[in-house]
Amino acid sequence: MSIQEGSTAVNLTDDNNLFTDKETFAIAHMLFVCWGICIPIIGLFGFIGNILTLLILFRKEMTSTSVYFLRTLVITDTCIIFFCILSLSIISITKINPDMWRFSDVIYPKMFPVVNYIVMTLQFVNVWVTVAVSAERYISICDPFKAVSYCSKKKIIKVITSIFITGCIYNFPRIAALTVIQFECGQHICFEAVPTDFGATYFFVNTYSIYLYILFIYVVPLSILLVLNTFLIIELMKMRNKRGETGAQENMEINMSVVLVLTVIVFIICQTPGLVAQFWFLRRVVLLYWVGVSNTLFVVNSSVNFLIYTAVGRKFRQGLLKKLNIFVKPRVREFSTVPNFETEMVTLVENQQRADLCDDGNKKNGSWV
Q1: What is the number of other CB atoms lying within 10 angstroms of the CB of residue 259?
Q2: What CATH number did the domain enclosing 268 receive?
Q3: Coil, helix or strand for 198?
Q4: 197 with 179: CB under 8 angstroms?
Q5: What is the value of pTM for the model shown?
């Protein structure tokens, strides 16, 4: 789940003869298909799905503390899609069209260091918020008494803020590692993003960009997610076996755990190619093809969570249908010409009591699925 800054820079800010022979010409068109066609289509679907998800997650009845994590995930996913389209889709189109040299040779090199920093920071926040929401659900199910103090609204907001600040600080070396130079190419002035002295050091090229990246974006969070979700499923199975028939709350918790497990599976599938792309043992041509696919999967990962929520999350699906006004309007009750005032008052009071009980139950459950 990464936009590989090193490989992307090589791909798109190389010398002017990058796409002169047949091999590099084929690479340019492959990147155009992956980044110029597939990413915008997938991204458009992701935008629509994420906006609908936000409409559901910001409803007043969504009172669970997990919702604050999920809102953050949706926002970061949406921003990732936008910046990937900005940094990948447009450049892949301009590289096969020489008349659009102003973007590829002037605008893109200037914006690349900043956009790359933003995307990598969003990725860091997205990954660790996923870990945090899994930890929150584990505590809520396995030790609900501690959840009252550990998973309060204020503490959840502090956790999200801490992850964001850490991501901004941790990724700052990426800005210091690149600088933009100016040179003449043909009849116009070109710009290129090149490594600074710091960006050329062994620490940045290997220790920071490869080993620490793999550790903090893949190994540690994936391990935590797998362990937490495994224990979560085991605990839910124990709850179900202990009580025989599960109640509404237990079914809701099981439903949520399935959503988390599916999210982790999609995460692993979409992230693994990006992990391999961090190692430069592949031939340059193979690496460029690999990066084209892995960065496309990066956008896929930020676009498909809506499908998981809709397909598996019952309460989310109900809220979505209600938001889209798909529910059939209830038939208006017909009253007699001479109404019985006492009977009608009793009926109204009973209906109101049932509605209050439903509202209280939703607030108590506080689940988004």
Answers
A1: 20
A2: 1.20.1070.10
A3: coil
A4: no
A5: 0.77
